[in-house]
Write a structure and sequence with these properties.
single chain; 716 residues; alpha+beta; Beta-Lactamase; 5 domains; 6-stranded antiparallel beta sheet
């Protein structure tokens, strides 16, 4: 910009708006003066005139009401005693409390000299006459009551005429005239103030109209002078802005202005250059290049900062998509594995060795591990409970020369004792070797999982691998471990049953052989008895008793075997009945100690219209609609940790639909009395809850309609 003084846009605006400021100040002073006067008069009207008029009107109404009550009391039949008492009570209240209240309110105006002398004098007259009138009322009531009690008809007629046409009536008319004059005086004063305020408002509007005319003339003059200078420059700037608005980024050069217009053109040039740089950055982001360096012009550069945020969000979205893909892959992997293992366990039969071989082989291959072994708990002798290696896969046989593991011995025995998963990525040196055609090496990851169901451990599975076994795979092993444990338990029951049947069969065969031998001996004895009957009668009795004992023993053994078989069959039927009743009577699902879904029956899944894969390993609190239900659930977990059963109605949202479920929570705990899982029996009561809410809504509408009718009746 050239040196020397320049009559810039800023100076022109200061001069023009300075003139407008002077006009506004003058206008403000005139309007403020008028408004102040109006405010003072209005305040006087509000604080003195109107309240004075209100209280004097109340005094006048009190005098009129009291006199009317005295007349009604006088004319009321003597037999209506309740009505006479009520009228007398109202008269006494007006003579005392109501009159004192009004006098106290008026006293504030007279003592603070808000009223003039004539108004105070007139009020004094009204007050004295009012007291005299009320005393006359009291005397009249006393005299009339005495005459009425003595049945003096002439006296009651005389007192009634005096009340209606005598001194009391004259005093009533006099005091009412004075009270009316006093109230009218304040009414006239308030009216005069309002008229004067209205005149002042009219003058204010005249001043305002004149000021607006002057203000508009000054604005027109300033606008005319400014437009002649600025219109050309503004058109130039507008052309540049129009091109930018259409997405065109033109070359911007100054046109010789050395004032604010020139600064605007220079700023537009900087803006165009910045937009070109920003567009290049956006193109690179669109091409997937997230590594390009780009700096905003300032911390307030909205477009540049938005592009940086978009780039960061795209990077985050790409990572999130990859994470979701991995989670879906893991979930599908686990679901497929559960299905395959369930199919395998259903068809495995009752041979523990075949079961162990197929399970460990399937686990090692499905987890892509390098070796694995399965141990089954041998509790046939309650005094010698231990673990037996029943199957292994790809193990170094030297490592497993010992087939028996005691409780608490090495990692296997410790896992059984603690009933918790062992997960190691830093294995003890020489713990196990993996051999192949290329040599030997130590694994890098070891997982030992107890096969347990309902807090009872039936076996241990051990897996070793060169690669790290992921957390979701460990969870899969634990989950499938429950199914394996249940299968082992069932196989054990079947094996024990078969063993009992086999033992009973062997015992029956032995008894049959013994019985045949006894019969044979009896035949021999009979032959000998025939030859030596006379010589050895005692021997015949002995052999006959032996025969009876053998037969009794055979019958007792056969009865015991039959009872054991019937008891085993009854147990299997009861288990099937309990499972059928649970699956068909109510919804059932199981949570772990942290509140995540473990399993659910078909009735519960059908009620919420979801599959087991949709809720498996998800927090139940994420489906709760009300925050209060989440807080209550956390409190329930604390109660369940203490072994207490709890019941509660919860509000859920599954698959986009809302449900109300009445649920009973039952805890299961491990050997250390720590909460292991939560068994939940659930019943869908959504229709009942919605029906109750609909009834509450209808009751609310009826209440509102009733209130509206009551209000309407009062207004009528």
């Amino acid at each position: 910009m050239n040196s020397g003084f320049h009559f810039t846009v800023k100076l022109k605006l200061i001069l023009g708006f300075g003139t407008l400021g002077v006009v506004i100040l003058i206008m403000y002073y005139l309007l403020h003066s008028s408004q102040q006067k109006n405010s003072d008069m209005l305040a006087d009207n509000i604080s003195v005139n109107y309240p004075s008029m209100l209280y004097t009107e109340q005094l006048k109404d009190l005098i009129d009401q009291t006199h009317s009550l005295v007349v009604r009391w006088t004319l009321q039949p003597q037999i209506d005693t309740s009505r006479l008492k009520k009228l007398r009570f109202e008269i006494d209240a007006n003579h005392g409390m109501h009159l004192d209240t009004i006098k106290t309110q008026i006293k504030n105006f007279t003592e603070k000299f808000h009223w003039n002398d004539s108004e105070r004098d007139l009020y004094t007259i009204v007050s004295d006459k009012t007291d005299t009138l009320f005393m006359m009322h009291d005397d009249h009531i006393a005299s009339f009551s005495a005459a009425r009690d003595s049945n003096n008809v002439e006296k009651t007629i005389q007192l009634t005429q005096e009340l209606l046409d005598g001194n009391i009536a004259l005093m009533y008319k006099s005091v009412m005239n004075d009270a009316t004059r006093l109230a009218n005086s304040f009414y006239l004063k308030s009216s005069r103030n309002l008229v004067e305020i209205e005149d002042n408002i009219d003058n204010s509007f005249k001043i305002l109209r004149t000021s607006i005319v002057i203000f508009l003339l000054v604005i027109l003059l300033v606008g005319f002078l400014m437009s002649r200078y600025m219109i050309t420059s503004i058109n130039y700037v507008k052309g540049i802005i129009n091109k930018i608005s259409r997405g065109i980024l033109p070359e911007v050069t100054g046109d010789g202005h050395n004032d604010e217009i020139g600064d605007m053109i220079n700023s537009l040039g900087v803006l165009v250059a910045s937009l070109k740089e920003t567009s290049q950055f956006a193109i690179r982001i669109g091409e997937g290049d997230f590594t390009t360096e780009f700096k905003p012009k300032s911390k307030h550069d909205v477009l540049a900062n938005s592009l940086l945020v978009m780039r960061d969000n795209l990077i985050k979205a790409e990572k999130d998509a990859e994470q979701r893909k991995n989670e879906n892959t893991q979930r599908n992997w686990a679901s497929q594995g559960l299905a395959e293992f369930n199919e395998l366990l259903r068809n495995v039969g009752d041979d523990m060795q075949i079961l162990s071989n197929k399970v460990i082989e399937k686990l090692v291959r499905y987890l892509d591990a390098n070796m694995g072994g399965i141990y089954i708990v041998d509790d046939s002798d309650k005094d010698d409970i231990h673990l037996d290696l029943t199957a292994f896969y790809a193990y170094d046989r030297l490592k497993y020369a010992k087939q028996r593991i005691e409780i608490g011995e090495n990692l296997i025995g410790q896992c059984f004792r603690e009933n918790e998963t062992v997960y190691l990525t830093d294995l003890p040196k020489g713990y196990v070797h993996i051999s192949s055609g290329l040599g030997e090496a130590d694994p890098t990851c070891l997982v030992i999982v107890p096969l347990k169901v309902n807090a009872e451990t039936f076996g241990i599975v051990e897996l070793a691998s060169f690669r790290v076994i992921e957390k979701y795979q460990v969870e899969f092993i634990e989950k499938i471990g429950e199914t394996i444990a249940a299968t082992i338990a069932n196989v054990k029951i079947n094996m024990n049953t078969a063993k009992l049947l086999e033992e009973s069969s062997e015992k029956s065969e032995r008894l049959a052989q013994q019985e045949a031998e006894v019969h044979k001996n009896i035949e021999n004895l009979k032959a000998q008895i025939e030859n030596l009957q006379e010589l050895n009668k005692n021997e015949l009795v002995k052999y006959q008793k032996l025969h009876d004992d053998y037969e009794n023993q055979a019958e007792t053994s056969q009865s015991t075997i039959q009872k054991l078989s019937e008891k085993a069959e009854q147990l299997r039927q009861n288990l099937r009945k309990m499972e059928f009743v649970l699956n068909n009577s109510a919804g059932y699902y199981e949570l772990d100690a942290q509140g995540f879904f473990v399993t659910a029956n078909n009735r519960f899944l059908g009620a919420i219209e979801m599959l087991i894969g949709d809720i498996e390993a998800k927090d139940i609190r994420s489906f709760m609609v009300d925050k209060e239900d989440e807080i209550k659930f956390n409190n329930i977990v604390e109660h369940l940790s203490q072994g207490l059963v709890h019941a509660q109605v919860n509000h859920y949202k599954f698959n986009g639909r809302e449900f109300y479920l009445n649920e009973i929570y039952t805890p299961t705990r491990d050997d250390q009395n720590v909460l292991k899982s939560i068994i939940v029996i659930s019943k869908n009561i959504t229709e009942q809850i919605l029906h109750v809410k609909d009834l509450e809504r209808q009751i609310g509408e009826l209440k509102n309609e009733n209130e509206f009718l009551k209000t309407k009746d009062k207004s009528v």
